[in-house]
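Repro:
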Amino acid sequence: MKTDDFAYIVETKKSFDDAVVSVLKAVEQKGWALFQIYDVKERLAAKGFEQRPLKIIEICSGRYANQFLNKNRLISLCMPCKINVLEENEKVKIVGMKPTMISQFFPEVSKKEAEQVEKDVIEMVDNAR
């Protein structure tokens, strides 16, 4: 399995903080809900570890979540969707998990259904770029 199979990655010229704000705006514009933002660098620093900037942004579409949970409640293990903003090699990247991976673990979700969700995630990542 390659990274491209489960992650959609774009580089941005924006600063790390501006990229995070752009993701939040893209999520809001798409009508998805923001669940939580984890500042991994900050949390690890509190434990004495040094890490480059990384924020995990959890998002959800109620329509898609309900649709998938009605098929198999264990799909909740793959929820909510995530878009990460990270700094790597002095570049800022925006990364979305590809929801089509769900269909590989849960056959009751067709790849076509998961592609609809993935289209939204890719659109939000592209709009945040």
